[in-house]
Structure formats: C-alpha cells, structure tokens
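[Discussion] Sanity-checking designs against the backbone

I'm trying to build intuition for which residues belong where. Below is a structure token string of 803 positions. I'd appreciate it if someone posts a full sequence so I can compare it with mine line by line.
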C-alpha cells in the first residue's frame, strides 16, 4: 500500500512507466500486425497463382473439347450421305439407312457424344445417329427445343456449345449441343443443320477432376455469358446451390473482366474468388473458396502472435518498472532540492496536480522571469539615471560637481569617456506639425472655419506622439552612429538633443548635416509626411560649456520659423539674423503694400508681401513676431478704411491676427495674408445681403455637419429646411465655397470616414451605413477617388503610422 501511495504522488514516474510500456507495446503490436498482414497477402498471392494454373488447365481442356466437337461436326457436314439427307425431300430408304448407320458408328466411337442429328430444313425432318439413351428418351422435346433455337435465328446458338435444358427452371443441364448450319433460307423454313450433342457429365467431370478443394458451397463453377451456372452439382444441397448462385451473381454484377481475383462478402461470409474467360461460347470458369479456408494458417499465425504479444507485455511491465525506477532517481533528488529542505517524503511535494518536471520547469521559468524582470528594471533604472545625468549635463553643466560629471561619464562611456579631453557637438531637434494648421480665409469674411474638403490638422493622441518621438530618436541615433559616437536624449520639454562626440580635426558640419538629412529621409519613409527640424551647433571642448552651447543651439533652432519643415539649420545659416538689432519694417515696403491693397492690385500685393517677409526672415528671432504683428496691424488698418466696408466682415477682421500668429512658419503666415488679400481683390462690393448669404452658407455647413449621417440628406432636403429653392441655395453655396453642396457633403463624410477608419473597429460596410452612404461600393469608389487608396488600405496605413 505504501508503495502504491508513493507511486500515486510520483506522477512523472507514472508517465515514464506509461510511455516506456506504450512504446514497447506499440512497437510489438505494429510488428505483429505487419507480420500478420504480410503473411495474409502472401497466402492470397499464392492462392491466386495456384487458382490461375488450375483455371488455365480447365480453359485448355474446354477449348480442346470444343475443337473436337467442331471437327466432328465439320466431318459430318461434308459427308455425301449427310448432304443428301439434308436436302432430299423423300430420301431413298437404302441411302438413308447407310447414312444413319455411318452416323451411328461415328457416335458410338466417341464416348462423350450422345448423338448426332441431321436437320432437313425444307421438310423439318430430324435424323438421329448414335445410341444415346437420353436423345431417344427425350426425342420429341429435343426436337422442339432445337427447332425453337433455329427459328429464333439466334446467332449465339450457332457454331458453339449451347447448354440445353428441357426444363428451364431445372437445376441441371441436359445436353450441350454444337449446331452447324449451311445457310438460313427464306422465312418459314429452317436451315439445313448438323447438331452434335455432348453429354454434360463429360465436361463437368473434366472440371471437377481438377478441383480438389471444393466443398458443398465452393469449388469450380462453369458460368455462361449471362451469369447463369452451368454446373449445378448433383451432390450439393439446395442451400449450397443458392449460396453458389448468390456468389456468381455478385461477381457477375461487379466485374466485366476476363480475369479477376477478389475477395467478396456474400451474406456475411467472405469468399476468395478467381475467374477466367475460357474462350468457349463466352463461358467463364470460377473458383470459389471460403476465405477462412484459404487463410486458415494466417489466422493460426495471428492467434500465436497475439499470445506471444500478451506474454511479452507482461514481461515488459516488470522490466519497465525496474528501468523507470532507476531512471527516476535523479529526478527525485532534483525535486527534493527544489523543495528546499531536502528531507521528507516525496509524496508531500507542493506541485499539486502537475508532475514533478512540470513543477521544476515552472519553478525555473518563474525564477528566470523574475531575473529578467529585475534585469529590465535595472536596465530601465540605469537608462533613467543615464538620461538624468545627460540632461543635467546639457542643462546645468556649469553647476555640476566633479563627482556628478564622473557619474555622467560612467553612464555613457562611449560618448563621454574622459570628460576633460573630448570635443562635442549638439543637435537640437523638434518635431514638425503634420500640416500647416489654419485653412485659407475666404474672400469676404476671412472665415476661420476650414472647408470640409480642405486640410485639417491631424492631432494624434499623446501616447502616439510619444511613439513617433521615440522612433525619431532611434533612427537619428542609429544613423549618426555610422560616423560618430552619440546619444539622443528627449529633454521632455519639446526638444530632442543629439549629443555627438567628435575629434577636433574631424568636426565637419556638412557630414553631420548629411547624416541628419538621411535620418529624416528614413523617418519619412516609415511615417509618411511626418518630419523634424534640427539645428546643429559648433564644437565645444570643455564639458562645463555644454549648457551654453545648448542654449545657443536652442536659440538657433528657434529660427525654424524661417525655414521649411525638415530643414537642418547650421550656425552659418542664422549668423546674420543674430547680428541684427533692428526690427522695424522699411516704411517704403509698408507704403507699397498699403497702396497695393487700396488699388486691389494682385501683383503689387504679392510683390510687397514677398519683400516684406524676406525682410522679416532676415531679422533676429526675438523681433520676428513684432515685425509680423506690425504687418498685420498695417493690413487691418488699411482694411478698416471706409472704402473696404462692403468687402470686409468687421468681426472676422478682428480675428485675423489670431490666425496669423497660430501659423507654424513665416511661409504659412505669408500664404494666409496673401490669400485673404487676393480674395479681397477678386470680390465685388456687396450690399448688406452679403452677410445674409454668408449666414446661409454657414447654416448649410452646420446643417451638414450635424445631419451628415442621414442617408436622405441632399440639396433638396436642406433647401426645404431653409424654405428656399434648391437652385438658389446651390448657387449661393457654390459661389462662396467653390464646390457644390453634394461635393461638400461627400467631402465631410469622407473626412469622418478617415477618422473612423483610424480610431474605430467598425468594418467598411458599417462605416458606409453610419455615414449615410446608400451602398458600400459607392462609398469605396468615392473614398479611393479622393484619397488614392481604398478604405482597407487607409486603415492599414493608419495602423502602421503612415498617412
């Protein structure tokens, strides 16, 4: 009992015991089955070959008999006396006697011939030769049967052995008749014929003489072309005869081959069947043997194999118990070590329903996971401390102690090394906005609302923006590492600082410029139109001057407003700006701009704005906002003159400076002012109803933005809501928005579709239905026409961070 209790807790031992026995038993069973099936196939093949030999001999004998009978019939047919009897209407008695006497002698000299008949087709007279008892006893029935065959004109009954049964329902064949005819005359008469009648016992005895394995329901069977048995078996019972008929019927229905060897099941009993076309009268000879009789030795072999398998399994159980116990000893000792104390019974192991190795593996995995987590925590802590010291060094190198500087060097030895004998460069990087932000103002009211078909600012969630910044840091660090040791630190204040260690004789701004441009190209390939702008510093050789260099580079970076997105700004690019101390715009440029606005001269406005912003771009960064505001105040001052009252909405004019200040660059500011002023030049003065039209357009846009999901929303429904004609509403809207109501509605819906594809899990059909499209196909067509990609492709790009 104690041994069973210990074994119950040693689950790994149980598995070892089970698998060892399973493998041994499985191998033995597979081997035994293979031997059994191989022997079975070998016995069947041997039986097939033996049957083929017997069937070939029977075929030869039947062919020989058929040839003998044919020759006898041909010899009789050329005899003059036979020819005379076949054609004479009233034959002479002497001639008739002589001919029949000759036939008697021919018939009696051959043991297997019962009789030879001559048929005069004209007189329908039969003449019989031979002393066959059966023919004499059944003379009238035989004549009627033969006459019926000849009258039917059955070609299968001519020149071949034909089995005759006077009683069709009877089991026995009475005679085999071989009929030779001269010709088939006109209808109503019979052909002149020679009929050689063969005793059936002679053929059947010839077959049975070669069959030494038959019993009541098996053995050699002769079958005609219709699948009917010709050999009935005089010593067989009715049940045995019925079994034979069923087997013959099954084989005849399932096989049309001349030769076959198969195993078939009839009434739940299997038979091994061989058959062959004997070439005589389309007969087949079949050999039927019970499957158990053929495979009796294989069954004996199977029983012996089964007994040996059971004995072997019993012995393997004892052997495997000894082997597995020896193999389990190291596992048991290892389990005791994992339990901690090394004492106590193994069955008290704390692994619950799992086996010992699962428990040990779980303990190892748990320990390794804790070690990896501790290592990750340690790595994160080291990274945090490393970034902390680097930020301290960048932002406060003047006040850092020598000990803190040493810690900083230890945090990044590849970058800092000996702080007192190195040269560094900085690059301050900032992420650019994904679009220009404010849309163009319209011609009359300088509306701040962007068009639904215009660009909108893509504001990504904070977490996603952090991922973009992290990706930019990695790309820059890997790209610059091709030439220089470096570290990229996110300062958490909007700036990314790239710390680069250079040798004084190898400090090349052009090389660093190319590396940052290459990093920008890589970043754009992965994240679409997202870019970053960088400012590259000069070199510094004193570790405590890094903060001053950082502050100088940040000031240099602020000039990004004068450069396009993705620029790399070097000190030489802004040296002239930083040297300037004035910020007043030339009065001549202000005058020329004011005159261009008053005269509504588009060329003069463009030229003046271009010159003005060139002057702004050359100023010190501190003075650029003042210069731009001075320009905006000048424009507002001119537009407040009474002559512009019909053109300008006073409320929107107050917000002009707000739109300009929010622009990301001087180019965006110039574009905004230029669009407002040029649209002003192209607008005719309007009566107070202009404000009314603006209100109508704003109302239509608000109505669309509120009810865009309505599938029935259209120009007609909006006009009905406003109690106006659809033609008037459509004309006013197109005049102000440069697009139809339908285009604006589809554009707004497609913008909402982009948001849903990027931020929701709805499928394309659900989004189309939600946005009011009549069907998904039309939605997909419009979406691809507007965005260049299908909705699914847009969602995939959004998931991958591409635009």
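Best answer:
Here's mine. Compare freely.
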């Amino acid at each position: 009992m104690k041994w069973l209790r210990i074994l119950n807790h040693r689950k790994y031992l149980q598995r070892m015991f089970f698998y060892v026995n399973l493998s041994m038993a499985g191998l033995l069973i597979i081997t035994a089955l293979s031997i059994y099936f191989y022997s079975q196939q070998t016995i069947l093949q041997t039986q097939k070959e033996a049957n083929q030999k017997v069937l070939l001999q029977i075929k030869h004998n039947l062919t020989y008999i058929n040839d003998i009978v044919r020759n006898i019939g041909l010899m009789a047919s050329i005899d003059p006396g036979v020819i005379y009897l076949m054609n004479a209407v009233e034959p002479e008695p002497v001639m008739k006697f002589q001919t029949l006497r000759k036939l008697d002698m021919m018939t009696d000299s051959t043991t297997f011939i019962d009789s030879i008949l001559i048929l005069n087709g004209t007189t329908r007279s039969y003449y019989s030769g031979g002393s066959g008892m059966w023919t004499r006893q059944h003379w009238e029935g035989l004549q009627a049967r033969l006459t019926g065959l000849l009258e039917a004109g059955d070609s299968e009954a001519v020149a071949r052995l034909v089995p005759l049964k006077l009683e069709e329902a009877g089991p026995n064949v009475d005679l085999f008749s071989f009929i030779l005819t001269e010709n088939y005359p006109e209808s109503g008469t019979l052909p002149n014929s020679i009929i050689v009648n063969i005793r059936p016992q002679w053929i059947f005895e010839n077959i049975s003489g070669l069959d030494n394995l038959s019993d009541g329901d098996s053995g050699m069977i002769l079958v005609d072309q219709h699948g009917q048995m010709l050999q009935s078996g005089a010593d067989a019972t009715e049940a045995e005869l019925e079994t034979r008929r069923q087997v013959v019927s099954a084989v005849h229905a399932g096989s049309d081959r001349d030769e076959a060897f198969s195993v078939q099941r009839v009434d739940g009993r299997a038979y091994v069947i061989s058959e062959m076309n004997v070439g005589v009268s389309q007969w087949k000879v079949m050999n039927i043997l019970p499957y158990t009789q053929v495979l009796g030795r294989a069954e004996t072999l199977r029983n012996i194999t089964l007994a040996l398998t059971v004995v072997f399994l019993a012995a393997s159980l004892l052997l495997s118990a000894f082997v597995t116990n020896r193999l389990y000893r190291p596992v048991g000792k290892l389990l005791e070590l994992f339990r901690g104390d090394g004492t106590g019974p193994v069955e008290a192991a704390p692994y619950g329903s799992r086996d010992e190795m699962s428990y040990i593996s779980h303990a190892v995995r748990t320990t390794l996971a804790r070690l990896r987590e501790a290592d990750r925590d340690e790595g994160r802590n080291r990274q945090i401390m490393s970034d902390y010291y680097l930020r301290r060094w960048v932002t406060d190198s003047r006040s850092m102690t020598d000990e803190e500087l040493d810690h900083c060097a230890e945090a990044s030895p590849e970058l800092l090394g000996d702080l007192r004998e190195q040269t560094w460069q900085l690059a301050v990087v900032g992420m650019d906005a994904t679009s220009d932000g404010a849309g163009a103002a319209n011609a009359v009211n300088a509306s701040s609302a962007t068009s639904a078909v215009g660009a909108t600012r893509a504001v990504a969630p904070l977490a996603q923006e952090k991922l973009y910044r992290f990706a930019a840091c990695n790309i820059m660090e890997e790209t610059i590492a091709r030439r220089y040791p470096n570290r990229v630190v996110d300062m958490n204040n909007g700036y990314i600082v790239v710390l680069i260690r250079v040798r004084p004789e190898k400090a090349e701004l052009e090389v660093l410029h190319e590396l940052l441009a290459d990093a920008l190209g890589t970043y754009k390939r992965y994240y679409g139109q997202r870019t970053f702008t960088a400012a590259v510093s000069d070199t510094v050789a004193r570790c405590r001057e890094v903060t001053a260099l950082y502050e100088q580079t940040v000031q240099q970076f602020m000039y990004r407003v004068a450069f396009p997105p993705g620029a790399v700004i070097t000190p030489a690019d802004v040296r002239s700006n930083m040297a300037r101390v004035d910020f007043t715009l030339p009065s001549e440029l202000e005058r020329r701009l004011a005159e261009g606005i008053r005269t509504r001269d588009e060329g003069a406005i463009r030229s003046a704005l271009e010159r003005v912003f060139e002057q702004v771009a050359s100023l010190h960064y501190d003075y650029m906002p003042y210069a731009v505001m001075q320009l905006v105040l000048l424009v507002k001052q001119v537009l407040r003159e009474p002559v512009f009252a019909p053109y300008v909405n006073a409320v929107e004019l107050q917000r002009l400076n707000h739109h300009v200040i929010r622009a990301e660059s001087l180019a965006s500011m110039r574009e905004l002012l230029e669009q407002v002023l040029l649209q002003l030049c192209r607008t005719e003065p309007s009566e107070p109803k202009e404000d009314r039209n603006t209100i109508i357009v704003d109302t239509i846009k608000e109505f669309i933005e509120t009810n865009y999901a309505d599938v029935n929303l259209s120009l007609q429904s909006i006009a009905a809501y406003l109690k106006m004609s659809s033609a008037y509403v459509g004309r006013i809207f197109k005049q102000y928005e440069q697009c139809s109501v339908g285009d604006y509605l589809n554009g707004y819906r497609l913008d909402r579709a982009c948001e849903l594809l990027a931020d929701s899990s709805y499928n394309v059909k659900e989004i189309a239905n939600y946005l009011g499209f009549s069907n998904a196909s039309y939605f997909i067509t419009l979406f691809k026409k507007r965005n260049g990609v299908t909705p699914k492709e847009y969602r995939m790009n959004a998931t991958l961070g591409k635009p």
